[in-house]
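Quick question: what would this complex look like in 3D?
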Amino acid sequence: MTRHAPDWPLRADLDLTGAPATSTDPAGVASGEPPVRVAQPSSKRGPLTGKPAAAHRPPTKAPDRAARQRWSTASDLLRLVHAQPGITRTEACERLGLASGAAAELIERLRRAHLIGERRAKRDAPGRPTTVLTAHPDGPLALVIELSMAGWRIWCGDLDGSVSEVAASSYGNQDPAGFLPGIAKAAATAARGYGNRVRTVAAAVAGTVSGTRLLQFSTRGWDEADLSVLTSRFPSNSAPLLLAGNDAALAGLAEARGGAARGARVALHLLVAVGVGGALIVDGQMVAGAQGAGGEYGHLPLGDPGLQCPCGARGCWDLMVDGRALARHRGDAPPTDPLAYARNLLNRLRPGTDSRDRAAAELTARDLGAGIGGLANAHDPDIITVGGIAPNLRAAAPDAFNEAYLAGLMTFHRRNPPPVLDATYGDEGPVRGALALAFDEITSPASLATWV
Ligand SMILES: [Zn+2]
């Protein structure tokens, strides 16, 4: 993976602002044979409009060095547009140090290649008029296949980050070998609607992933599965590249690229859903380990050694920070849907309400804060972002969280604790991160050299 184009400023330059979190509802779980919901391409949005793209095919051989160099600056510019949707031509040229003549030539070349579009920028300040750099209406697209605990969804996204859902369903009672071929068929059907524009498919999986293999999906009891089947229904002469990553890790990538940790050199992200996962992001890139399966923070033994985790280990932190923990503290039976249980409990918390709810939230927030303190000692991040139910859990018991977080920090960290920020992208984080991963590939100089 190549380094992301923008320069990542040091801590003093961190952009701590972020848009309010947005969310999408998880796909519902239906009984019996799950129906597949397939959306028709909409006429409203950039990535879903336009005539079929100029013909392009996967390369038969790698582009040579000169071809890659020719596309190097173009790659920087396109990655900047993906990382900062809405960026103006003037701002982009300043960021990349491009003279106006060279920029005009480059943008014209990219426009002719259907790789970039432009629209007039609003003039809200004096100065020369500029344009906003956008996705080209016939430009490259990526499909994101989201495999969450509740079900699956397919999204289509473009260079400037517009995403639209194109298909969704539940797993029914099937295991991966049973449902993956159906998703592959839905993906190929969706891609056909866009001509040959779909260049990459990225899977965001709520399990442990190495390359394109699912190693373990503990919360559903699934073992190994080959995800490469996901692109098996595309025509063999235009099969897109398949990438895959853990959903929490991808959410961290999204936060580091354009969310609450944007600009951080070292960012740690934690997503609490059923268990907790995450990623360390350094210079805008995931540090994913030798097999790509790192970031399984939930399986550190920060919990009760008397508790058996579905992953096979004992005493996992996973069991201390989610709906299973809240239910245990409250004296309830293990919930069948720990995420829904946690959301319900946290949503009903009010001052003066059920003291068992409040006690359960405080104990769980404490265990979350303590573990995050330990991870801050381990990784020394500039910024920590939290997503999933973690923001609500922290908001429900801020004192318990903060006290445990600070108590878990080494003394020198306590003088200047890494800020813990709520994620910007909410439940959209994994999809946003998968799209970023896909466009890293699509906008690489080698890939651009094959587009035209
Ligand atoms: Zn575990």
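Answer marked as accepted. The two ends are 22 Å apart (CA to CA).
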